[in-house]
TrEMBL record:
UniProt key word Chaperone: no
GO molecular function: fatty acyl-CoA hydrolase activity
Segments forming domain Acyl-CoA thioesterase-like C-terminal: 95-224
UniProt keyword annotation of Hydrolase present: yes
Protein name: Thioesterase family protein
Length: 235
């Protein structure tokens, strides 16, 4: 929501460059007010501060850089992981024989490279996640802010599951997100499926860190991002 709110204020020819989010509280399911304040309005780059609030209480603050710059060097040394294409894989719904129980996950179709049943015995494994995701009924309409919002949702959502799958035992704690930073490279455009290539390979001093790259099904790097989660014992 913060990214799209910034897009509504930015010049019409701008696209997102960077998003930095700080989570100040937990928003309720329902309407929220977005307040966008331009902090810098340059000839080719804008910086906007965005706050989301409900009933006068701010629960999220973000900074969004946008740009219309298109010139400059072109390099692509990063290479997409060598994984099966989404057309060769089954969705979680097909593996499970039913839609996800939680309503949030019903907005996606996910295709794991290797399916592990939820009731399978836990085993210690690398905290790595490589899965394809598609947004159900998504239509970006050529809006780069909406296009990149797909990557933001995946980068924000999947750090905890990545950390979780690396544990030999079910955790006795939760880990709310403190922040999220995303760097945008190029829109996914017509690519329906996005590959999340993520790790959560460090946890120290009460913080769990994860970062990921988002790739299209034709091998383009769309976005890079990461966040810190705060270790919180269950009450």
């Amino acid at each position: 929501m913060a990214l799209r709110a910034a897009g509504a204020v930015a010049p019409a020819d701008h696209r997102p460059a960077t998003l930095s989010v700080q989570y100040l509280g937990v928003g309720a399911f329902g309407p929220a007010e977005a307040i966008v304040t331009p902090m810098k309005q340059g000839r080719s780059a804008w910086l906007m501060n965005v706050t989301l609030q409900q009933e006068g209480k701010v629960f999220l603050q973000a900074q969004v850089w946008t740009t219309n710059r298109s010139g400059g060097p072109v390099t692509a040394e990063a290479r997409a992981p060598d994984v099966p294409p989404p057309s060769d894989l089954k969705t979680y719904r097909e593996h499970m024989g039913a839609p996800p129980q939680h309503g949030f996950w019903r907005n996606f179709e996910g295709k794991p490279l290797r399916f592990v049943p939820p009731d399978a015995p836990r085993q210690a494994a690398p905290a790595v996640l490589r899965e394809w995701y598609s947004f159900i009924d998504y239509d970006g309409g050529g809006d780069p802010f909406l296009d990149f919002a797909r990557s933001v949702i995946l980068l924000d959502t999947l750090v905890w599951p990545t950390h979780h799958r690396g544990l030999a035992e079910a955790p006795d704690y939760i880990a709310p997100s403190l922040d999220l930073t995303v760097w945008f490279h190029e829109p996914a455009g017509a690519s329906e499926w996005l590959l999340v290539d993520g790790v959560a390979d460090i946890a120290r001093e009460g913080l769990i860190h994860g970062h990921s790259r988002i790739w299209t099904d034709d091998g383009r790097l769309v976005a890079t991002g990461g966040s810190n989660l705060l270790h919180t014992p269950r009450r």
